[in-house]
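User: quick one, fold this
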Amino acid sequence: MTTTICPGCGAEYTEGVAACPDCGILLDADDALVYEMDGWEPGERAALDQLLAAAAIAHRWDGDDLLVPEDAEAQVDGLMDRVEFPDALESVPAEEDGDVDDEAVYAVMSDLFVAADRLAGDDTVDIESAGELAMAASVATTTAAPFGVEPASWKQVQQLAEGIVGAIESEAADDVVVRDAASLRDLLRRMV
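Assistant:
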């Protein structure tokens, strides 16, 4: 019997397993749909990666190419639109999204916390920290409230994150951005 090794976590599976149940990486790339993503920024790819994980879509990166199962094309196209055109699409209300991967949603919240914490710990706003927060915020603003978090509280997180991104984009004073990032970090800390 032939086995397949997961390139993400190293787990071993018998041939025919399409995706690693441990880390969600697409194992069988023979019949995969390939998206050439060389025009996307690293932050956009990271946001798409998180959305794919949150939607429990098996996928794998091969350099600049994204590989997904052919039957996930419509879902992947929709998620790509969410990353490329975040202002044009509305997020799915929590009560309509019954198949949410709680671990992936918590990963989104964790990424936002880490980005806010890094930014809050700086005296000045550097491009890397600002970019991390902007990317984490773009994913968080399209993600339903994590299990156990009140939707109103999550909406407050989303609005604060959007406000910080707006302040960064409008080149607000560094101390304002750092202060708001600290507020976001503290708000998220109470939720975990």
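User: anything notable?
Assistant: Residues 102-120 form the longest helix (19 residues).
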